[in-house]
Every structure is written in C-alpha cells, then in structure tokens.
Input
Amino acid sequence: MKMLIPPFLIALALVCFAFLPRMQAVSPAPDGGYPNFNTAEGAKALFSLTTGSANTAVGWFSLFSDTTGSFKPLRARARYFSIPQREIQPLAAALLNNTIGLDNTATGAAARLSNTDGTGNTATGFQALYSNTDGLANTANGTLALHGNTIGEFNTASGDGALLNNTEGFGNTANGGSALLSNTTGNNNTALGYNAGFNVTGTGNVCIGEGVLGVAGEFNTTWIRNIHNTVQPVVGTDPDNVTVNSAGRLGRGDVSSRRYKHDIKPMDNASEAILALKPVTFRYNKEYDATQTLAYGLIAEDVAQLYPDLVGRNPEGEPESVRYEQINAMLLNEFLKEHQKVEKLEATVAEQQKNFQSKLVEQEKRIEALASGLQKVSAQSEATKPAPQVAVNNH
Output
C-alpha cells in the first residue's frame, strides 16, 4: 500500500530548502593540515616526517621521530592485512620516538614515549607504556601502566601502576591499581583487584580480589579472596563440593543421580582390591605443609600398582592423587558383603538354636514321661509285695 504525501507538505519543504545557506569548502584550511593527509598540532609534532601520510599528531613533540609511516601493510605478525597507520596523541610528547610503528594510540603526557616500531599498542595515561620499543598489541590504561614494558606483547593493564615493571612478559592481564606490579618477565598471569598479584613474578598465576598478593616465583597457582574465611558446611541440600580437572575447569563434585550415569551394575567382587591396600602415616613436604602435621592415607604409586582406576594422574601420566571417594564406596560394598555373611550366620545360628530348643523340649517331655512311668511301676511294685509276718510267742 503506497503512502500519499499531501501536496501542501511538498510545497512547504521546497520553501524551507530555498532559504538554506549555500554549502562551501572551508577556506583557508584548518591550522595543522599538511600535505599527504597529515595533521600535526603542537610544538615539533611530526617533526621528522618525510614521506609518511595519513598521520595525526596532537601535542608537544608528538610523533617527533616518525619519518615514513603511512598507508602501508602491517607487519606479518599483525595478520597480513592492510590498514592506514593511525597514530593519535592528544597530549605532550606522546609517542615521541615512534618511527615506523603502526596502528598505535597514545593519550597522555609521555605516553609510549620510547616506542620505535611497536605495533597495535594503546596507551592512555601519564607515561603509560613509557618504555615500550618493539612490543605489540599491548593496552595500558592508567598512570604508569606498563611503564617498564619494552618488548612484551599482548599485555593488558588497567589501573595506575598496573604491570608497572613488566619488561618482556607477554599475555598478562592486570585490572586494578598496582595489579601485577612486580612482574617483569612472567607470562600469562591474571590479576583482578587493587594490588592483586602484587608479588607475582612467575607464569600462569591467577589472583582475584583486592589485596590477594600472590607469591613470588610460583607458577600456575590460583588465589581467590574470601574463600577460606567463608564457612559453609556441606550439609542439607544446597552446599556442594567443588572439583577441578586437569584443564582447570571447575564443577560440582557431589552428583550421583542416575541421569549422569550409564552401564550401571552391582559392584560384587570388584571392591575386593582395596583389601590389599596398605594404609600409611606420613607428613607432607614443607613446601606444601609448613606445620608438618601427621597425616593418614595411601601412596598413589602403591595404589596404581594394585588398582590403576583408583588414582588420578598429572598431565604427564604420573600417579598424582588417590580417589578416596571411590574407596569409600568400595569399603561400603565390602561392609555390606560382610554384613550379609553375618546375617546368614546369625540366621543359621538362630535356626540351630530353634532346632535345639525344639529337641530340648521334646527331650524334656520324654524325660517327664519316663519319670511318670517309673512312678507307676514303683507304685505297682509296692502293691504286690506280701504282707509282713508277725511271730507269736506262746511262752
């Protein structure tokens, strides 16, 4: 269905257009516009540029050392696609020493001051990414964020002093003031919160929460605030145990519904393997337990020799842990088997006692009958005895 525009609206529009001012190009061109689509505003901004094009430098000494940066392909490590070079620095000395680096953004006094040919970096804040030279794909937001970084790559720092001392580490993520402040060459660390991961220097660590400082020199560890001091007994129907697999995936531990299982059959004699296990006492090494408390349990290597399915293994396939929850189920099966034996034995004893009691009652009846017969025989014997003779003396 077509919509018809009333003629008076058309006429009104024509009248309005008739009174519009005529558009024309701005003349003269804005201050700071230079040949080859370059824009520079500020003392010695784009000072060294020769043949570069499509650059924008705003601020004192911004892009001071850039010479030939222009529309050109990115480097191979930037995925081989071509985009214009975009260097934007609103404040003094931002990206001061950049020469051929591509696709960088700097906002703040002395932000990315030392950059020469780093690519795809973003710095926002006073001296953010100050020392970076060749690092690529870094993001720094905050005063002194990633200040010491030189060639580290793919780092993200948000917060004043975040990843302050990082130099060559890559793949780190720090969100929060002074987060991962001590890290220099560690890789793939993650810190969330003020001072989170402050002490971390190793690789693959995770610190979550304000003041979760971590430990220097440790690798692939995780610290989370508030868990240890939050009491939540596993009772009722709500709380549950948390498990983690070798890939670091967290999940619920106490699931036993038939919905999650298949190939279900009685355990029968499969649990008898635990009867050969050798419980021991031990103490954990000091690096794992400074208290050296006496502990009780099993040795994973010993268990693996008897029952491989009862141990957990590390990524190298070495025995690492014992599946005690499985042993509990096997112990229950053995207990029930013994309990059934005891029940059968008790039933047998009860039956024997019943039979013995029945025989005893029957025997007592026989004894009573025999006693009664003996009494009758005795009475008859007395009745048949001759009367006693009395001698008469005729003297």
In short: The chain has three helices and 19 strands.
